[in-house]
Amino acid sequence: MMGLLLVLLFPLGSIAIGEVRINFRDADIRSVIESVAEITGKSFVLDPRVKGKVTIIAPRPIDADLIYESVLSALQVQGFQAVQDGAVIRIIPFSQAFNFAGGAGGNEMRTEVIQIQYVQAASLVSVLKPMLSNGARLMAYAPSNYLVVSDIETNIEQLKDFVRTMDDPESSAIEVINLTHISAAEAIHIASQLKQLQKQELSLVEDSLNNRVIVSGPGMARSAFRKMLLSLDVPSLKTGTVEVIYLDYSRASEIQTVLSGMLGSETFMRLAGQPTGEGQKNVTYKIEVDELNNAIVLAAPREVIVELKNVVRQLDLPRPQVLIEAVIAELSENQAKNLSAQLVYSSRNRGAYLTNFDGVLTGLLGLGINEESNTSQSALAAALPNAALGAVGDFNEVSGKGMGLLVQALQTDGATKILSTPSVVTLDNEEASLSVGEEVPFQTGSYTNNSTGSLNSNPFTTINREEVGVILKVKPQISKGDAVRLEIEQESSKVNDGGIVGLQTTSKATMQTNVMVQDGELLVLGGLIEDSGVGTSAKVPILGDIPVIGRLFRQTGRSSGQSVTMMFIRPTIIRTAGDGRSVTRGRFDHLIKRDLVGDDDSNFMAPKLKSFLPADDMMEPHESNPPPKE
Fold first, then answer.
1. For 155, how many CA atoms within 13 A lie in the half-sphere containing its CB?
2. Whole-model pTM above 0.70?
3. Which of 48, 67, 82, 465 is the most buried (most CB within 10 A)?
4. Are 308 and 326 in a shared domain?
5. 76: domain range?
6. pLDDT tens digit sequence for 198-225
């Protein structure tokens, strides 16, 4: 089981001192340690977990010290460590050796702090760790750029030799320095003022979001910059500071509202390391707005300002815009039916969507059909005089000329009246108002004094002017996938005929709805229906003007009808300056062709677009069967 050959070259007393030939083959660890204790005269205490077998072979006699070192090395292979504990040596598992300050022999367990000069200590940890024993500890202390290692002495010495090779003053790398008490912008500003650092080949980048500085350059220059920066990154002696933040895209008043709400949140204050509850009363926070410069003035502790600046930078972003183009047209009843039917049957793959406004929005009619539907066109046409139409469809095939072509097509119909073609650009989530009409005077009061002898006999009438016409308010909201949610409010008003001037009456129809449209798609809204009447008169010349009997020689009549106000709206998202230039260039080219060249764009109308618009030869709306399938 165990072979042990002891050759004593020098007779000894109770402690054997001299050279001994040893030969342990698969020997029990405890038996080996017992033999070593007899040879060296050392006292050992074995942990109950110390078990196993070792092999130690010496080809020639060796002294007691070398025997002891050989046994310690064999123990380390098995995962055990010898630790000096007073007069005895403890043999314990390697993982427990860090709890003892001392060591034993040349492979003593120890902890050492290694100063790194030119490279980042944290970058060396992953490289050096495989060189250490199982269970050894290695960590980087970033504030002082130290390495802290706990291992046996020989491994530590090897590690130090390797570190000296890698910690080269001429090496160029990238280093990230995290800051706590000063801002990254301040740190870079201070560094730019130091002439000594100006001579170094350093590149500094500010990471304001995480309040850190990214530096690249030679190791010696980075080391000097890091030491300077960490010496500045200390708590300020002042309880607070003041900083001005200039905004690029957002309104200062809007950002102030958000920041004020955050200062009132205990969660935010805890994240910023500030007292809450009663302790918060002793700290002053102030947020003011400079409207002239669109800036925010912050007065608060440094830690709070750093957090608030991070919030501001994430909120102060450019907002996309939306170009809203509209065509407001008044169609006769028959033309409205034709256009409605054509819209419904214009899509083979998807149905249109019909909305029953009935003067105001009352809900979905639920009538969405396509060419595959069995719903008859006559039923649709019969419903349209009392039901409004809302349809969504693609209308972007003619390179930005679609709205102009639509206007042209509507103008070719004598029964259609174009009321307005407004367009406006507004920010995302900002309301745009489009209106066409006139201000009409209405009498609101009068005064007349008919009494005789009155000193004040000047009568007067009070007049109030009200806007009459078509008003459209749209608020776009850009959603995921370039979908645009439109909050639409439409009003159509008109002065009724036959009233006394100043005492006229008006008719008004309103509509309010929310829809979702893809970028560049055309939205059709209709349903503001009004009755109209026209008086006619015919007479025999001269005879028709004779009082009383002249009635026999003249004829009067009155014709009535209905008209429908329809709106065609198309939103276009403008995210970049290039998008804006493209829209502007398209409008400019259209004006040049129309006014200078006389090009009416009729040759640019795509076949699909032509079939989308009403035509004179379209089928009668009351035909019983839908159009044949292709």
1. 23
2. no
3. 82
4. no
5. 19-99
6. 566 777 877 776 778 888 777 777 777 8
